Amino acid sequence: MPVGYLVTVAAVAVATLLALVPLRRPRLLADLSFRLTLVLNEVPFLCFCWLLACTAWAFSQGDVQSLVGWATVGLAGASTAGLAVLARNGLRAGPVAEQALAEALGADWRTSIDPGTAAGLRRRLPLGRILVVPFFRRRRDVRRTANIGYGDAGRRNLLDVYHHRSRPSGGPVLIHLHGGGYDRGRKNSHSLPLIHRLASRGWVCISANYRLRSDARHPDHLIDLKRVIAWVRENGHAYGADPSKLFASGSSAGAHLAALAALTPNDPAFQPGFESVDTTVTAAVCLNGYYGNYYGQGPDSSPLAYVGPDAPPFFIAHGDHDTVVPVATARRFAEALREASANPVVYAELPGAQHAFDLFHSFRFEHVVDAVESFAAHINTHEKATDATHGRP
């Protein structure tokens, strides 16, 4: 009986099934669905290669010359079909993101982008990186300056700066906050493919730690993000940044923070001791975000409480298979923004995507990275045109 082969195939089969039909209740099983499918859902071709290698080895060892062996081969074939569906779902993120951009920015949004910027937008996915090194998230043309202090909370108030090694001037800024439910997490973990991509294109990207529970609670985390913005206003030029073009971004709890910061510019309640600093942001990018109340606190701890006509542009991406933060919360937030805000709201609901889809170089997330860069290019072009119209430098 091919016990090792059977266990391997059964494990892949269970994970594939959970990725296709995730368990959403109870909470324990929803979290289990997320943890068991995190890698497989984003890089299913690696699991296919593993299945193929195990099957070839089983045949070479004569382990399939029994009813159980052939049944295991059949299960491997069924799992392969499921993995193909997962791969197809990842590829579908491209058309979905393209449609979301067209709906929010207009069908001719590409023609509205500055020609120089548009020429640099990526036309093809980095297939080699996705297929060969999906977990390797660095780039040789990007430099990381790590562990710069921006506050007095020790290692929880440290940030990393990513910029092109040539250090061009006038680069837009992306500040990214990690996820982890406000309980855990660290900088240099989430959305690194996005950070490195933008940094390679002349952006200055910031990945920051912030205080976590139980040492902190709302609005302490938001105050930390505002301090990061203040740090960029004061120090960004030294790294080639143009702080007037500043995007707040986050994953999961970090998206909650980014949305709050974008919707509460210059609010003195969230800027104790640095009330005079300009904390407005150009736009917000929210990935698999949570938008509800903070751990039983009142509605004023939710970004929904601050949605209004002056909300900046938003890019929101969420998976329809997310079992950690149900997709309905993202839909509600996007709808509230669209109803109230005069600025564009891009909402891309990604087919088959689980929580934390932004960890690896996958077909899905690389499509999202391209969409974020396109969104930012459109917004920056529009801001430049507005400044020229009003005679601003």
Description:
The chain is an alpha/beta fold and 393 residues long. The chain folds into two domains: 3-91; 93-389, Alpha/Beta hydrolase fold, catalytic domain (Rossmann fold, 3-Layer(aba) Sandwich). Helices cover 45% and strands 14% of the residues. The protein contains twelve helices and eight strands. An eight-stranded mixed β-sheet has the order 1-2-4-3-5-6-7-8, with helices on both faces. Helix 1 packs parallel to helix 4 (67-91), helix 3 (44-60) runs antiparallel to helix 4 and helix 9 (220-235) crosses helix 10. The termini are far apart. Mean pLDDT is 94; it is low at 388-392.
Summary of the model, kept short:
45% of the residues lie in helices and 14% in strands. With 393 residues, it is an alpha/beta fold. Helix 11 links the parallel strand 7 and strand 8 (345-350).
Keywords, please?
393 residues; alpha/beta; Rossmann fold; eight-stranded mixed β-sheet; 8 strands; 45% helix; globular; disordered C terminus
Question: How are the SSEs placed, and which strands pair?
Answer:
Elements: H1 3-20, H2 27-42, H3 44-60, H4 67-91, H5 93-105, H6 115-120, H7 127-132, E1 142-149, E2 158-164, E3 171-177, H8 192-200, E4 204-208, H9 220-235, E5 241-251, H10 253-263, E6 283-287, E7 314-319, H11 327-340, E8 345-350, H12 363-389
Parallel strand pairs: 3-4, 3-5, 5-6, 6-7, 7-8
Antiparallel strand pairs: 1-2, 2-4
Q: Order of strands side by side in the largest beta sheet?
A: 1-2-4-3-5-6-7-8
Shape: globular
What fraction strand?
Answer: 5-15%
Reported for the largest beta sheet, the result is: 8 strands, mixed
Which radius of gyration do the C-alpha atoms yield? 22 Å
Report low-confidence residues grouped into runs of 5 or more: 388-392
CATH homology superfamily of the largest domain? Alpha/Beta hydrolase fold, catalytic domain
